[in-house]
Design goal:
Layout (H helix, E strand, L loop, with lengths): L11 H11 L4 H8 L3 H8 L7 H10 L4 H4 L5
Helix pairs in contact: 2-3
């Protein structure tokens, strides 16, 4: 059973996960699409690690975040 944190996006990677699922993509497909190593992306979705600055920019681009929204997004 999944915890509530996976039901309501609360951080940047949770928003990416929600969008990925909405698009019907696997983690492997999204990681390849974004040019991110698969193991790295899996670690983020499992909350084992967080994306660094460079990867945050990639995720924000995927989410089509506006500059004003970037400062409000939790990593």
């Amino acid at each position: 059973m999944r915890s509530d944190k996976h039901l309501t996006p609360t951080c940047l990677i949770d928003h990416a996960r929600a969008k990925r699922l909405g698009e019907g993509l696997t983690m492997k497909e999204l990681a390849a699409q974004l040019g991110i190593p698969f193991d790295t992306y899996v670690g983020w979705e499992r909350h084992q690690s967080q994306p660094s600055g460079h990867y945050q920019v990639i995720i924000q681009g995927y989410l089509e975040m506006k500059p004003a929204e970037i400062g409000r997004a939790h990593v």
